[in-house]
Amino acid sequence: MKNTIESVASRAKTPFKNAPFTDFSKEENRKAQMEALEQVKGELGRIYPLVIGGKKITNETTFASVNPSQPEQVIGYFSRATVEQANEAVAAASEAFENWKRVPAEERAGYLFAAADLMRQRRFHFNAWMIYEVGKSWAEADGDTAEAIDFMEYYAREMMRLTDDQPLTHIEGEDNKLVYIPLGVGAVIPPWNFPCAIMVGMTSAAFVTGNTVVLKPASTSPAIAAQFMSILEEVGLPAGVVNLLTGSGSTIGDALIENLQVRFIAFTGSRDVGLRINELAAKPRKGQRWLKRTILEMGGKDAVVVDETADLDAAAAGIVASAFGFQGQKCSAGSRAIVVDKVYDQVLQKVTEMTKQLSMGDVTKPETLIGPVVDENAMKKITEYIEIGRGEGRVMAGGGHHGPGYFIEPTVIADVDPHARIAQEEIFGPVLAVIRAKDFDDAMHIANDTEYGLTGALYSKDPQRIERAKEEYHVGNLYFNRKCTGALVGVHPFGGFNMSGTDSKAGGRDYLLLFTQAKAISTKK
Ligand code: NDP
Questions:
Q1: Taking phi first (over 0 means left), then psi (-120 to 50 degrees means alpha), and beta for anything else, what does residue 361 get?
Q2: Is the CB–ligand 1 distance for residue 444 below 6 Å?
Q3: Strands 212-215, 455-459: parallel, antiparallel or unpaired by DSSP?
Q4: Which residue, of 99, 231, 399, 458, has the greatest Cβ tally within 10 A?
């Protein structure tokens, strides 16, 4: 490991700063990204093993991860883990926990700093893997890598903060102390849409706090998890602290969650899978000695509200960016625009025009903003929703799809009833429902009238309405006069209400506590 305990302690004292986004208008950055794309292209199609207790195991049965822009291009072949291997991975993590929990916090944080340094060096490569594996545009991929670096830098510092003396009320005759200790083995189950940031964030939070991990990446983005595993190996993270288990969630998920040695599950993904995990984890099994903790971040049906006082150009730009960034495949995506009657037609026209200008196509080119959706299933589901939407409103832009990749045109559907299916169900694709509200009160009501509560934005210049929205807009991440996507680590701790999950606030000061338990120690003098 490159960092000494002293250097970790002093680095942890430096204030956290977000990694800046790469400026691709600079020739040297464009060149570096092009070169990384070429280099990664030469690495596509390799076979990747499971990593269990530091051993690399390649199964005969594999599955392919493919490029959604050109599905015939294989990103890599990944071993399909069996239920037995899921249990072996938990056993390996359980064994590693006995030593790892005693490793000083500085040393654990040091691995994160070292991993962040390596990822910074390989930033363009990580971007390239995401451009190929999930169809991110350059800027979206770069934001994802930056967020992963931020999570590691932030959680390393947070771990050191939790290791400090915790403030307690003093009483005479006793020494009192409160320490945060790890939970045990965690199953970490991330989604594919932030295949680097969320995967790295959940995994690093789990192990920097002294837990050990079985990481089961999403089956559409395992190559990025494999790249991260290489980094962890290079920085010398002990074997078994993070185990990589690729394979179908529906085959090995239950085994992981039900395993008696699994103490907690950190999941980010869809509502339905999250609810299932919650239910399975809640049921104690013979021999189980603890309540399994679940940290669940799930879907959204997020809204951008616009009132008649707003800067309408800014509002339209915010609606379009929120709805169509990474093809609308963000939990924070603004899939509903709720516009008051007085300015509805104007905003709709602006949004429609801006949407028609978005460039869709080859994401290996820097100028492309919109790429494909992640796979064939997503394409089918989204096109079905567009068909439903044709019956629920007026298609103003998009509506079509193109092959051979999974390209769906950014689609704007106007005059949608607030209770229509496309206004209530998470589509997770480039489909925006535009809803007319009578007035601001009505708009607020519509915004809150879904089962989710993740992000929301309001464009308004009225200070009283802004104050009201601060109280009434029931979402975990609320934004004024800006888009509802793009949360930054440390700046906008992220997590949602209601069916959007357990509001874990990733990238915030409360997050690491979810991966620990507090022990109060009292000594009579
Ligand atoms: P899924 O729920 O389909 O999958 C998420 C993860 O769960 C994958 O690793 C998947 O594996 C795994 N999984 C699937 N079935 C099971 C099971 N039965 N038991 C255990 N694990 C299982 O979500 P997506 O990957 O499609 O991600 C998109 C969803 O994530 C959207 O709903 C989005 O809103 C949400 N999301 C929420 C965020 C938040 O912070 N609130 C942030 C980002 C996304 P496999 O791939 O093998 O099926």
A1: left
A2: no
A3: unpaired
A4: 458
